[in-house]
């Protein structure tokens, strides 16, 4: 099995040296699901009923969190992101799917940024709705696609 | 169905007024699972093989993220946390369970802090191991227990 | 004229000692105006035309900035805010008024937090609309009301 | 009227994709005014009387805020700034003018950084002097000049 | 030898639980020295020659860093500081001494905040003067005094 | 003596313009010492006795602080770091030496980032061990080597 690159030969954690890697255009797409009561989802999707736009608050939180990934994940490189977008869709009767797409022109990829955007957007949905449905759950936060780096084009099967 | 408290009558988002709520001791416990290849988990748990301590890096990231919850979740109140701890355990052959416990003496609870600690610890495990297992997945991020507020003692069934 | 309390006898800046001040409930209300083309304002207020909700983005930015006032204003005390809300209203044909209200139970007041919320909300309106109206202007950012401290109830005349 | 670029076709906010834009040298200059009592301004400008240097504190706050614009304005891109400077001048008897100039070599401009520097410098002047003049007001925060991007050279008339 | 309280029985790091500790007034005083060429110190102390006020920039940086200690030291509790001040004095011909005093009313002390204020003020002196004296050195960063907690009054001998 | 570049002709602080400087690969290496009781050092180095890994916590704190140097040192440029690593070694019987190496491909160097990494790692060692040895001291924080910029290769003699 290959080594964990975030540790050196003595086991010390480090921010891996990307100085020699080429600057390329890179993209990552991640997704996650917020499972909730069907009534909670109806409430979220009916802006009349909800009075406000839960998903827009979650979207902004996710975009802002993507920009702070380097502050939150200890060994991540800080990156000047080119683009971040977040989309929501319905899954069955009782879940929302969140998908974040992040792009950068840099020496390393943005999969952590995409996963962070999904996670913080999901937690914000939870925060906005926890007064009506405390048992919501975040599921299946995962990388969907990644392109532009040395490791080639990854697409989850 | 009750209202979403984060919106006012016109649907404007707001940070809810907690000025009148009593200061009490509050606790929240949240959990999540990182699903991975069995070989990846063996690598993480064998510090000899991994060369470094993946879980300690993830634990610190989770603790630090708990302290920044008010910066990341738009309508969360900033809180002076009393305690944060994070524990890892094995689930089946191919998953790690993360549990975060947060305590505070304040006017509002810390469930978002506990969920944030779990999420960022999980993403840090992903970051540390993504070079060997890109398809890892974060699952079941959920509140387990919550005590100390007006809404009473919540324990997930 | 009284002294500037943020300097000591030698002229060194300092974070003023509030250790002896009583903890009381404090409120501050600040306002500001964004002057723009009438067409820009019509665009903002017609969510159909704008496609999105400029004011909700600005509101969230203002609320989040209020929480970070202690990080941005060098000699401000960090405060655990109880409540933040932001309201928009129309002024004439070509301006939007922003009003922020912040509350805290603490040893010092929150007028800087209210002014910061207004300023960052105003700049976010600018950012969202600058592609159609680069000459927008932020005007009249000022304290409207302040209560709860030793200096008494301030209401702008 | 052109579209607001920060929303997509469905009205979702997003960080606009600048991946294809060329890296060029860009500059933005913004200004603002702090209106105050004439006595307050005399106090600020007479370092003997004030005991400390209000404007230097405000200048540093403005420069540091410019660096954090991407953290504060939700859909702004994080940018590696080349230069930030802030100048103060007198206006009439009762006002100070603040002008910030920001430069970058990047795919997008720095007008938000310049406006943020002015706003936070102005609020810091307020904070430093509020114990003697609570009714100060920030006025006319606006872009003065902008160069280097696709939209050409903007100079306020 | 007593245990390191930041680790639990299994060696996991944690933010120690201070929930049961009484809220008391606490103070910490720390100091440090910046050793430099005598000519560099003359330059710093002669504001005419230096053109600007190196020590005021360093002071503000130190105060702002004290407020962010909980963000920087992984297991520190975030604290609502009551007061921060920083003083400079001359030592011999070629050194500046920095002393920071921090106060809080809380369940835990502020020695890390005082040490952080000294360290960041010292590094800022370095940054301001490195173009003329790259070999400056920060020395003797240490706690001088601490009062208000269970461990009693500490004064360095 | 040359001028302090962080001040302009009027003595105003500023972030120096690096727009015209070439992008080159740059490296900086800094070191510092934490002086402590010999028993404290034995405790740190014996992970069995300490129960946890003090140095790994300090290492992560130092790496994360390096990434935030531009937020902490007022006139530093924000930089997209390529690599950060931190090593510990023993000095005599009662001290630990910390060495940080930072690399970047940018228009300005990373000596402040290396010094910040050393300082925050040192303070974290202090924080982890202060319950057993309050009199620990940080010494000799200094630049060891710097390469890649116009000022040539600096190696401390």
From TrEMBL, chains A, B, C, D, E, F:
Residues 15-149 form the Molybdopterin cofactor biosynthesis C (MoaC) domain. CDD domains: MoaC_PE. GO terms for molecular function: cyclic pyranopterin monophosphate synthase activity. Keywords: Lyase, Molybdenum cofactor biosynthesis. Gene3D superfamilies: Molybdopterin cofactor biosynthesis C (MoaC) domain. It comes from the Bacteria. The keyword Magnesium does not apply. Signal peptide: none annotated. Its EC number is 4.6.1.17. The active site is at 127. GO terms for biological process: Mo-molybdopterin cofactor biosynthetic process. It is an enzyme of class 4 (lyase). Homohexamer; trimer of dimers. This is Cyclic pyranopterin monophosphate synthase. The gene is moaC1.
């Amino acid at each position: 099995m290959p080594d964990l690159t975030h540790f050196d030969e003595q086991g010390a954690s480090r921010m891996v040296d990307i100085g020699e890697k080429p600057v390329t255009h890179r993209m990552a797409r991640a997704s996650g699901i917020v499972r909730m009561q069907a009534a909670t989802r109806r409430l979220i999707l009916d802006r009349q009923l909800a009075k406000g736009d839960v998903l827009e608050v979650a979207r902004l939180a996710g975009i802002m969190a993507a920009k702070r990934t380097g502050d939150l994940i200890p060994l991540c490189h800080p990156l000047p992101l080119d683009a971040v977008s977040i989309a929501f869709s319905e899954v069955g009767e009782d879940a929302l799917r969140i998908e974040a797409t992040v792009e950068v022109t840099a020496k390393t990829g943005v999969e952590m940024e995409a996963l962070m955007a999904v996670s913080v957007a999901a937690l914000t949905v939870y925060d906005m709705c926890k007064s009506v449905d405390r048992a919501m759950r975040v599921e299946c936060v995962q990388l969907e696609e990644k392109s532009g780096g040395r490791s080639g084009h990854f697409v989850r099967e």
